[in-house]
Amino acid sequence: QAQLIESGGGSVQAGGSLTLSCAASGYTNSRDCVAWFRQAPGKEREGVGSIYVRTGRKYYDDSVKGRFTVSLDNAKNTVYLQMNSLQPEDTAVYYCAADKVGVCTEVPHNPSDWLKWGQGTQVTVSS
Fold first, then answer.
1. How many C-beta atoms surround the C-beta of residue 123 within 10 A?
2. SS3 93
3. Kindly report the CA angle at 33 between 99 and 49, in degrees rounded to 5?
4. ∠ CA(9), CA(57), CA(48), 5° rounding?
5. In 3-state terms, what secondary structure has residue 22?
6. Chain centroid to CA 2: how far?
7. What DSSP line would sit under 43-84, residue for residue?
8. Which of 40, 80, 83, 114: disulfide with 97, CB 3.0–4.6 Å?
9. In 3D, which of 21, 49, 65 has the Cα closest to residue 105?
């Protein structure tokens, strides 16, 4: 069975950096898109960014544009989320997702459209 395994979460001070990894296991075919979402306590899950695998095109939410970078290592079948200039408002559980229903060449918004999810990894940013 296909599975997404996340790693790289942790605690940092404001202004610091973290890189999250999302490794795909058990996939027999290429994925069109991989997205990153996050969910803070008491808030809805929100889209952070995504990558369209066929072209490498990236899509980012305005809240992280210029600070976060989504990248893909085809050899390792792994997608990364590099997070720089982290702020306390970035504190959340971060999830990677795949198997988008419909068009994925856009900023990810609706979690219900993504069928495969990682287990989540906690990112905590202190001031």
1. 21
2. strand
3. 115
4. 35
5. strand
6. 17
7. S--EEEEEEETTTTEEEE-TTTTTTEEEEEETTTTEEEEEE-
8. 114
9. 49
Give the long-range contacts of residues 13-17, CB within 8 A, separation 24 or more.
13/125, 13/126, 13/127, 14/86, 14/87, 14/88, 14/125, 14/126, 14/127, 15/85, 15/86, 15/87, 16/86, 16/125, 17/82, 17/83, 17/84, 17/85, 17/86
Q: What is the pLDDT of residue 28?
A: 55
Cβ atoms of residues 10 and 20 within 8 Å: no
pLDDT tens digits, one per residue of 40-87: 999 999 999 999 988 899 999 999 999 999 999 988 989 999 999 999
Query: How many residues does this entry show for the chain?
Result: 127
Give the C-alpha separation, 66 to 62, whole Å.
Answer: 9
**Mean pLDDT, the chain, integer:** 93
Q: Are the C-beta atoms of residues 21 and 34 closer than 8 Å to each other? A: no
| Residue with tokens 């290592």, as numbered in its chain | 73
| 3-class secondary-structure state, position 37 | strand
70 pairs with which residues across the strands? 81
